[in-house]
Every structure is written in structure tokens, then in C-alpha cells.
Design brief:
alpha+beta
């Protein structure tokens, strides 16, 4: 396996397609006379790199700034581009395992590079963006929204206007705009989560009604937190359960 050139190690494209696991840094290990030995992948907070042989040297290269190249989006593992790239990774690994056979290693290296180049032009399916419910969802994502304390509804988040208004698309394809203070987005809940929330709301209302005189300052949100605590602790169940 030949050592990557400095030009390659300064190219963001090389790090995306040619290096396994997208490390934060790499270490190029060479012998005293400059012969390439291996490439070390270094992740953040990783341990110090120890050379494989006495007198060997390791030159560290930081991952180049990708802002100067095209923005790379995360692709689905099931798309053709990702599958071809993974085959290239496996052949690259095989070449590393046969470094003592320079001819075989060089042929495997060329084959893996050809596969990586092919992967860049193969059909790509982007992975679904992840969102933990903080802030606004990614544009185009289906989510649930609560508008002015109404019941949650499933919508598609379209974006935010320059005026600051939030635009959503309903299941009927209708575009609606709301002031950002009126809306609260969260990821789409499972059926089990919906049933949990409905029962907690019911229990909170019942608790508030029972405590109206003894605890007049108890808020709906406080009652809901109390009901959720008992429900998650297994101490709150529907009648007959």
C-alpha cells in the first residue's frame, strides 16, 4: 500500500472517500529511510500513537477544513453509492493486510480508488435527518406541532420567512403561517407515546379537579409532571389494569 501524498491529505474529498471512519487526524508512519509503513487513524481524545517499529517516525496530518469544498451530506447506508464505497473500504483493508506483497497491495489500492471514484457518481439516497426536538426541525421534515395549546397535529415544516413567521404544510397540502411564539414542534410520536401522553393529560386534569380547593396555586404543567412521574414509575394505571 502506497503512502497518501501531501496533496491528497490536504484534499477534503480524500478524507470523505478514501479514509475509513472519517478520522479527525491521521499519522503517516515511515521507517528511518523514509519507507512507508502504515496509516494511523486518530480520533478526538484518542491515545498517543506508538510506532510499529524502532526508529520509525509518524507525521501527523489534521483533517482539512471542509468548508472550502462541497458540503457533504450524510447518505443512507442502503443506497448504491454507500454500498460501492463500502466495498472500496474492504478492498483498502485487504491491501493494508498484504503490505508485504507490494505488487498485490498496489493493485488493491488502485482497485479501491476506482471504486471510491465510482461511488461518487453512483445514485445517492440521503439519510433521514436526525432531530431531537430542540429548536425547529430540518426543512422538509414531517413532525408534530402544537399551535396555541391545541392538540398536536402532523405537518411538514416548510421554513421560516424573513419576517420571522413559521410556515408549515398540513396533511391536506395547505400552507399556513404562524408567529413562532404560537407553535411548538416535536418529533412524531409512536402510538405508545400518544397513548401515554393522553392518559397523563387525563390524570393531570383529574388531579387538578380533586385538588382545586386544597392546592389552588397548582398549575396544569405541575399536575402533568406529577402524573407523568407516577405513570413512568408504574404507580399510575387505568382502571381495571
Amino acid at each position: 500500500m502506497k503512502a497518501p501524498t501531501k496533496e491528497q491529505l490536504n484534499d477534503p474529498e480524500y478524507w470523505v472517500w478514501k479514509l475509513l471512519e472519517n478520522p479527525d487526524r491521521v499519522g503517516v508512519e515511515t521507517t528511518e529511510d523514509g519507507q512507508f509503513v502504515k496509516l494511523h487513524h486518530i480520533i478526538k481524545h484518542g491515545k498517543d500513537i506508538i510506532p510499529d517499529g524502532y526508529g520509525h517516525k509518524i507525521e501527523i496530518f489534521d483533517r482539512p477544513d471542509q468548508s472550502t469544498s462541497e458540503e457533504h451530506q450524510i447518505m443512507s447506508d442502503d443506497c448504491l453509492s454507500a454500498k460501492i464505497g463500502e466495498i472500496g473500504n474492504q478492498i483498502h483493508n485487504l491491501g493494508c493486510d498484504h503490505q508485504n506483497d507490494e505488487d498485490l497491495s498496489d493493485r488493491l489500492s488502485k482497485l479501491s480508488i476506482a471504486l471510491w471514484d465510482l461511488a461518487k457518481h453512483a445514485p445517492t439516497v440521503l439519510a433521514e435527518p436526525e432531530w431531537d426536538g430542540t429548536g425547529f426541525p430540518p426543512v422538509g421534515m414531517e413532525c408534530e406541532v402544537v399551535i396555541a395549546a391545541q392538540k398536536p397535529r402532523t405537518v411538514c415544516f416548510v421554513g421560516i420567512k424573513s419576517s420571522g413567521s413559521v410556515v408549515i404544510e398540513t396533511v391536506d397540502g395547505e400552507l399556513k403561517s404562524y408567529h413562532r411564539s404560537q407553535v411548538n414542534f416535536h418529533p412524531i410520536r409512536s402510538q405508545a407515546q400518544i397513548e401515554r401522553d393522553e392518559f397523563i393529560d387525563f390524570a393531570a386534569r383529574a388531579y387538578l379537579s380533586d385538588r382545586l380547593e386544597s392546592a389552588p396555586n397548582l398549575s396544569g404543567e405541575q399536575a402533568r409532571k406529577i402524573a407523568a412521574f407516577f405513570y413512568d414509575a408504574g404507580m399510575l394505571r387505568r382502571a381495571g389494569e
